[in-house]
Amino acid sequence: MAFNPIVDEKKCVGCEECVDVCPVEVFEMENEKSVAVNAEECMGCESCVEVCEEGAIVVEED
Fold first, then answer.
1. 13/29 Cα distance (integer angstroms)
2. Cα separation of 41 and 57, whole Å?
3. Which of 5, 30, 32, 42 could form a disulfide with 14 if both were Cys (CB 3.0 to 4.6 A apart)?
4. At 44, which CATH number?
């Protein structure tokens, strides 16, 4: 099963918590916003969802 992490850039405040918590380095900061640059590495653990206080991240199953 594949997972697709999606960042809502309108909600993202650039705190970098998702970057720090992701065990497989899915996220990087670009223009002070989080971007899922390695989405194919996502394991579906949803650590990023739990740590995002803005509710800017969802992880969908493909």
1. 11
2. 16
3. 32
4. 3.30.70.20
Q: What domain count does the chain have?
A: 1
* Its pTM surpasses 0.70: yes
Which tokens sit at 58? 């969802």
pLDDT per residue over 11-41, tens digit each? Answer: 999 999 999 999 999 999 999 999 999 999 9
Q: Which token pair is 57? A: 């991240």
The answer to whether the CB of 46 falls within 8 A of the CB of 37 is no
Provide the residue range defining the domain that includes 56.
3-61
For residues 5 and 46, the answer to whether their CB atoms sit within 8 Å is: no
